[in-house]
Design goal:
3 helices; alpha+beta; Nuclear Transport Factor 2, Chain: A; 27% helix; five-stranded mixed sheet
Length: 94
Amino acid sequence: MFSKVRFEWDPTKNAVNEAKHGIGLAAAVALWEGPVVSIPSVKPGEERHLAIGVIGGKYWTVIYAPRGDHLRLISARRSRDNEKTLHQDHFPQS
């Protein structure tokens, strides 16, 4: 489904995210290679979503903003316990 989706990110945020969370935004694209739960962010302002999935056997959460035909990745971090549970509830075999 996401094979036709284009991803973009700010190169500076990519480096900062990698230093802070151990994963760059370029590497976070791999999240969409498996099942992903996407939920709207509760923060006000720009429309943003949280995508929760698995990369390398670990749960990750990627914050992104839809921009027309592509997704702008904003940050990536290890998933919180409630986010892992949400993903596991949707995809018990993951």
